[in-house]
């Protein structure tokens, strides 16, 4: 069966499986959104069913909540949890300082709220998500529907004074209609190509009326678990300043790998 998975999917799986080792019995865990985070939720579900792991999961989207319940994880709200021990999530890009671009799945607002309400945030990603400078992946910003075109124009005008290479933006669509977030908002994708000062850009964007939140995660991630298609994983801890490499045995089982079509 292993031949049915691409190297990129294998990389996502081994990163998720290694990151699951951060989770301890009794923890309140933020569960991310996206294809890589889905592997993590399934790995944790298997640990709940087969190893008796007891955790409470706080999902960052309705999609993740449904998956978590399906695999047997107890789901609670962030208000019920109050504070989290750990959040594990994917990323669209990460740099050497573990700053991130997130929001490709449209859940950046809940993802940032959950991540910042956690003692620790661990990112899981394949090696292709590492970049020297953020910005090749379009930067999502969540905006309220009222006056979104005016907000878009103001954002593009503001980008003129920012250290970025591109200034175009586009409304994210779902077929022939605007994409709607779990909070009922729109997503503007900023095509910047390169972000010279991510911290400054994040602050400026969030000061604009109509912008709810941006997809730049600055000084939030504590560690990244990077997966490779051959089963290797690399764990970088920004706080400890450590880098560790290991190899995980890659064994596909029907119960874990069935119905994975993210």
TrEMBL record:
Its EC number is 5.3.1.6. GO terms for molecular function: ribose-5-phosphate isomerase activity. Pathway: Carbohydrate degradation; pentose phosphate pathway; D-ribose 5-phosphate from D-ribulose 5-phosphate (non-oxidative stage): step 1/1. Substrate binds at residues 33-36, 89-92, 102-105, 129. InterPro entries: NagB/RpiA_transferase-like, Ribose5P_isomerase_typA_subgr, Ribose5P_isomerase_type_A. One of its GO terms (cellular component) is cytosol. CDD domains: RPI_A. It comes from the Bacteria. Belongs to the ribose 5-phosphate isomerase family. NCBIfam families: PRK00702.1 (NF001924), rpiA (TIGR00021). This is Ribose-5-phosphate isomerase A. It comes from Sulfitobacter sabulilitoris. The gene is rpiA.
